[in-house]
């Protein structure tokens, strides 16, 4: 996106306020009108022709004058209206726009910078707060999307296209979006008497202030973090439009861009002693943390309560919510989070420092910057990496993709933002006072199965998969597991009845969904409850009637997002009545959770989730389905969370026993060899003495 998005829309002035620049007509404009009016009474020529022409000109001028007066009044009205949409943040004033949704007005602010552009010397580094600005910043345009590649496996297919960037791609992408209901009691700038003005007074034209107020008032704030495997994603996608959520729920909603891929997670600090900040890793998470702090500081300016903040996100965004709640960097900043299909203990959502360094060095070499020089001349190597074209880095990083959901970028156990592996962090945390809403969709794995094995499957029609192909795919997916573990997984996900061909496809999808999403979520939810958090679990089982993906793919990863955002309430979209009702129920659950920490609505029962009582709530349009069930997928998740770790430990014990036995045998054999040599030496000595 062009840098003009950060250019103030009014010139800065040290002597005049923003109000005088925008609410009142300029003195020069009034002077022009006065001169124009005076010209109407000037004496004209004495000739009759000249007099006639002068009279006609006067009539024309009077008409023009009347038009100018009307335009002036319209300008003043427009100026007052735009000032009503101008908010003073800690960084500077921003002007938004107003939209009407569901019969309610919502103020929308898009493209507010919360950090300096992470370009040039700031590439790969932690974010730096944005420089303050003085003129009013135009916050009416969508911001740039952080650098990433597009998915184009199915050209022209809108089911894929909705996840691709819908704004220009740029490294200069650290921006914020905010939706605020118009009826929010926004806080305004201080008057000459030092008092505060409410939006309900005649002082609406004053700029709203970010000065902290009493924390007992203000609206709840929901903060969305997008997913995309830490490789893609954007807060600007249409599906994340929060107009309906803000209007219907009477809440503030915010979202922000954060760096993805190598730009957000390049981790080379362990091999650059003394220069760790050149590429510390996890800067995408540091972006998120800075955005949260900016929102905390500016909550009051938009009518929100800084002590009433809720994080929510899906997939990598959900894992990010998890990270922000657990990291010592942000612990306690927010104590309420909604996690949709993603937790930090999932195999794809974190990596060791050693693995991240290995991937980082490979990228450096692929960019022709010579990773072997990192220990002795890190500055030269990183200077080289900062000169590499962003597109080159964006493309080359995918060389380290190593299989389904094995992305080359992920949150790294760096000793700082993530000082230990996720489960270790959780097991030592006191989460009393934390509220968690967590859950999954029915068919988490099919989307990834299609993309990673596109030569085997069709997005539209089910595939009858022979046994040999089934085994080939399963062994590929779980290639990092031991042979014994793979055999156990294959046994668990083998169809023993029905049509094995089509069932093979379904079983692989279940294995992927269970291993990478549902069962890690199940395990993490239990641990959260054990550490004192109030946990509510949901399970989304509805396949939208207008889904563009094949029937065999079921309820896809991400299908619940549009319902939680209230998109089915948009009458211009094609939803069935029962889907609109489901959307209303799910949106209300999110809003109620943000307000109270409990997602139950309309007096419905929704008990807390725990290991002892793993009750969850089913979001479905099928009235025959029990809303409260236990699990989810209790038997299948017990396989992953309980049985398979035992298999792994048995294998480890067996290896240790074999290793110990082998070592003992080797020592015994060595000692026997030594004794044999000693005996031979003695015999030779005796023989020599006899013959002497």
From TrEMBL:
<dbReference type="Pfam" id="PF00135">
    <property type="entry name" value="COesterase"/>
</dbReference>
<dbReference type="GO" id="GO:0001507">
    <property type="term" value="P:acetylcholine catabolic process in synaptic cleft"/>
</dbReference>
<keyword id="KW-0770">Synapse</keyword>
<dbReference type="GO" id="GO:0045202">
    <property type="term" value="C:synapse"/>
</dbReference>
<keyword id="KW-0378">Hydrolase</keyword>
<feature type="active site" description="Charge relay system">
    <location>
        <position position="557"/>
    </location>
</feature>
<dbReference type="GO" id="GO:0005615">
    <property type="term" value="C:extracellular space"/>
</dbReference>
<feature type="domain" description="Carboxylesterase type B">
    <location>
        <begin position="85"/>
        <end position="640"/>
    </location>
</feature>
<protein>
    <recommendedName>
        <fullName>Carboxylic ester hydrolase</fullName>
        <ecNumber>3.1.1.-</ecNumber>
    </recommendedName>
</protein>
<dbReference type="InterPro" id="IPR001445">
    <property type="entry name" value="Acylcholinesterase_insect"/>
</dbReference>
<dbReference type="GO" id="GO:0003990">
    <property type="term" value="F:acetylcholinesterase activity"/>
</dbReference>
<keyword id="KW-0531">Neurotransmitter degradation</keyword>
<dbReference type="GO" id="GO:0019695">
    <property type="term" value="P:choline metabolic process"/>
</dbReference>
<dbReference type="InterPro" id="IPR019826">
    <property type="entry name" value="Carboxylesterase_B_AS"/>
</dbReference>
<keyword id="KW-0719">Serine esterase</keyword>
<dbReference type="InterPro" id="IPR050654">
    <property type="entry name" value="AChE-related_enzymes"/>
</dbReference>
<feature type="compositionally biased region" description="Low complexity">
    <location>
        <begin position="10"/>
        <end position="25"/>
    </location>
</feature>
<dbReference type="GO" id="GO:0043083">
    <property type="term" value="C:synaptic cleft"/>
</dbReference>
<feature type="active site" description="Charge relay system">
    <location>
        <position position="444"/>
    </location>
</feature>
<keyword id="KW-0325">Glycoprotein</keyword>
<comment type="similarity">
    <text>Belongs to the type-B carboxylesterase/lipase family.</text>
</comment>
<dbReference type="GO" id="GO:0005886">
    <property type="term" value="C:plasma membrane"/>
</dbReference>
<dbReference type="InterPro" id="IPR002018">
    <property type="entry name" value="CarbesteraseB"/>
</dbReference>
<dbReference type="InterPro" id="IPR000997">
    <property type="entry name" value="Cholinesterase"/>
</dbReference>
<feature type="region of interest" description="Disordered">
    <location>
        <begin position="1"/>
        <end position="25"/>
    </location>
</feature>
<keyword id="KW-1015">Disulfide bond</keyword>
<feature type="active site" description="Acyl-ester intermediate">
    <location>
        <position position="315"/>
    </location>
</feature>
<dbReference type="InterPro" id="IPR029058">
    <property type="entry name" value="AB_hydrolase_fold"/>
</dbReference>
């Amino acid at each position: 996106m062009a840098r003009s998005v950060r250019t103030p829309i009014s010139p800065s002035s040290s002597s005049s306020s923003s109000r005088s620049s925008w609410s009142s007509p300029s003195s020069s404009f009034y002077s022009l009108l006065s001169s124009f009016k005076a010209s109407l009474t000037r004496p004209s020529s004495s000739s009759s022709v000249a007099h006639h022409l002068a009279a006609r000109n006067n009539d024309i001028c009077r008409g023009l004058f009347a038009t100018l007066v009307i335009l002036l009044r319209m300008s003043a009205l427009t100026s007052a209206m735009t000032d009503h949409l101008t908010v003073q943040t800690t960084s500077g004033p921003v002007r938004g726009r107003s939209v009407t949704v569901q019969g309610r007005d919502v103020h929308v602010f898009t493209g507010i910078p919360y950090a300096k552009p992470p370009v040039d010397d700031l590439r790969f580094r932690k974010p730096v707060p944005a420089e303050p600005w003085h003129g009013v910043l135009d916050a009416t345009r969508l911001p740039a999307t952080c650098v990433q590649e597009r998915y184009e496996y199915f050209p022209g297919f809108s089911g894929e296209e909705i996840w691709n960037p819908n704004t220009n791609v740029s490294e200069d992408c650290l921006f914020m979006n905010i939706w605020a209901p118009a009826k929010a009691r926004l806080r305004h700038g201080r008057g000459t008497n030092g008092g505060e003005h409410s939006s309900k007074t005649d002082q609406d034209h004053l700029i709203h202030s970010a000065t902290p107020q009493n924390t007992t008032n203000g609206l709840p704030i929901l903060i969305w973090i997008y997913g995309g495997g830490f490789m893609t994603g954007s807060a600007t996608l249409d599906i994340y439009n929060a107009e309906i959520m803000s209007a219907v729920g009477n809440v503030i909603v915010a979202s922000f861009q954060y760096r993805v891929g190598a730009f957000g997670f390049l981790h080379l600090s362990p091999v650059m002693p003394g220069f760790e900040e050149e590429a510390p890793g996890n800067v995408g998470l540091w972006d998120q943390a800075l955005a949260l702090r900016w929102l905390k500081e500016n909550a009051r300016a938009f009518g929100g309560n800084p002590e009433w903040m809720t994080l929510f996100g899906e997939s990598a965004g959900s894992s990010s919510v998890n990270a922000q709640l657990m990291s010592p960097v942000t612990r306690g900043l927010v104590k309420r989070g909604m996690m949709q299909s993603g937790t930090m203990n999932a195999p794809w959502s974190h990596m060791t420092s050693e693995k991240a360094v290995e991937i980082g060095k490979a990228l450096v070499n692929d960019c022709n910057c010579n990773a072997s020089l990192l220990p002795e001349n890190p500055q030269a190597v990183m200077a080289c990496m900062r000169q590499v074209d962003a597109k080159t880095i964006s493309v080359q990083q995918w060389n380290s993709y190593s299989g389904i959901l094995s992305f080359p970028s992920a949150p790294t156990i760096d000793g700082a933002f993530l000082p230990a592996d996720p489960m270790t962090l959780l097991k030592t945390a006191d989460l009393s006072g934390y509220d968690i809403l967590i859950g999954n969709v029915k068919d988490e794995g099919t989307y990834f199965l299609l993309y990673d094995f596109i030569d085997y499957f069709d997005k539209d029609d089910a595939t009858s998969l022979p046994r040999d192909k089934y085994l080939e795919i399963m062994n590929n997916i779980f290639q990092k597991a031991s042979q014994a573990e793979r055999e156990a997984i294959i046994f668990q996900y083998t169809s023993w009845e029905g049509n094995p061909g089509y069932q093979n496809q379904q079983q692989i999808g279940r294995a992927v969904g269970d291993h990478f999403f549902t069962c890690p979520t199940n395990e993490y939810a239990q641990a959260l409850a054990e550490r004192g958090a109030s946990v509510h679990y949901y399970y989304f089982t509805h396949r939208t009637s207008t889904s563009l993906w094949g029937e065999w793919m079921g309820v896809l990863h991400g299908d619940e997002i549009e319902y939680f955002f209230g998109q089915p309430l948009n009458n211009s979209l094609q939803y069935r009545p029962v889907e609109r009702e489901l959307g209303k129920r799910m949106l209300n659950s999110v809003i109620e959770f943000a307000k109270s920490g409990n997602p139950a609505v309309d007096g419905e029962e929704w008990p807390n989730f725990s290991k002892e009582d793993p009750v969850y709530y089913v979001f479905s349009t099928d009235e025959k389905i029990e809303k409260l069930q236990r699990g989810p997928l209790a038997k299948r998740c017990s396989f992953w969370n309980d049985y398979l770790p035992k298999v792994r430990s048995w294998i480890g014990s067996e290896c240790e026993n074999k290793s110990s036995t082998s070592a003992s045998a080797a020592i015994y054999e060595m000692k026997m060899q030594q004794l044999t040599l000693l005996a031979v030496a003695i015999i030779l000595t005796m023989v020599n003495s006899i013959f002497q």
